[in-house]
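Protein modeling request. Please complete all fields; requests missing the sequence field cannot be processed.
Requester role: graduate student
Desired output: 3D structure, token encoding
Chains: 1
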Amino acid sequence: MWRMTGTTQYTYHELTDTPEEARRQERVAEVYDAPSMRILGGLGIQPDWRCLDAGCGNGTIAEWMSRRAHSGMTTACDIDGANIKVEPTDVLRTLVCDVADADFEPGSLDVIHARLMLQHVADREQVLDRMVDWLAPGGRLVIADGFDLAASSTVHPQYAEFYRRFWALLDRASATSPAWGRCYPEPLIRRGLTDIRYEVVVEPVHGGDPYALMFRQGLEQQRGLITGQGIEEALLDSLLENLTDPAFWDLGFALAYAVGRKPLI
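Delivered output (265 residues):
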């Protein structure tokens, strides 16, 4: 495993090698790998392609791409190497780095996938510029980030109140931009990418389902931050209870995918 260091303020999750964080990463993959694989599969990945999964989490998407680019090279890159669980092979390498400081050669990659990464990076516009530069002519960029649905439209007032205050907390206390995904696909159009595709994935929040449990675990891991910033424990506990209650149905986060191709000339 390679390692690089950087200083980009990144996300609100502590970078920690714990069973709880490993399980959270598994749940993220369980919920979101299927749409990522479907969209990447539509690109027609070739055996000799050079692929990057930026902010790869536990590395399942990078491993999936490496099986298709089986005579190329796939890189699984994340700032928290402790949670990269895939084993390197002749066509899959793992890289621990802040993506803002990564040094891929211009024009050296055929596809880049970055899911739930850019909205947690302070200098996301500059990082996006660099990713476009790393693409070879004709290369594809697949980015996916979220925006909130719960705070503005729900039949559960306490649910909406919690998320209004939680997103404001993240906006104030971290690099995270809770609404960044709502601007897609405009950042790709602005950078001159073509063959634009745009898709929004919305999973219902149903108490006890993997998606609800993913949210619950992330919130439990951040209890100290949340309550330390003035959100009452009773409000948090009410939401956590809902997320395990099979009678609870609502919406939470929409994940926006934007896909673009770098022009050949």
